[in-house]
Amino acid sequence: MELNDILSERSVVVFTEPMTKDTLLRRLADIAAAELDEPGEAIYEALAAREELGSTGLGNGIAVPHGKYAALPRVVSVFARLEHPVDFDAVDDQPVDLVVMLLAPLGSGADHLKALARVARLLRTEDMVAKLRNTSDPAELHAILTGPEAASRAA
């Protein structure tokens, strides 16, 4: 599974306004809801339930909030770059400015885990993270995340 399979260009955003973690999760849920024609509140609840188990803030300004939602046909993703980093209770206590939200259907254990692993491998490379932080254009961010360089790094 490639990131290109689960991340549409419409699901890549740049948030310029300050917000809280809760507001960020709601905004991500609303973007996914629009993409999937599903209720945003239900998607938010899936993300919030997972966050209650422990923060998905990985450190180095990166978070991968994720959850399971029964009505989905496949794994979907939303990417957000934040101009104002958010306190996300990350493992290193640093605020988050790069967020990859993953949402998977119930019963999609292997696909969900593959998507999480792929995102984690991609975002552990410093030059990839630097490229993402150095652009504010959603189309360019999508190209960085889904292009051949990303595919080879995440493999």
TrEMBL record:
InterPro entries named in the record: PTrfase/Anion_transptr, PTS_EIIA_type-2_dom, PTS_SugarTrans_NitroReg
SUPFAM superfamilies given in the database record: Phoshotransferase/anion transport protein
Protein name: PTS IIA-like nitrogen-regulatory protein PtsN
Originating organism: Devosia enhydra
Residue intervals of the PTS EIIA type-2 domain: 5-148
An annotated Gene Ontology molecular function: protein kinase activator activity
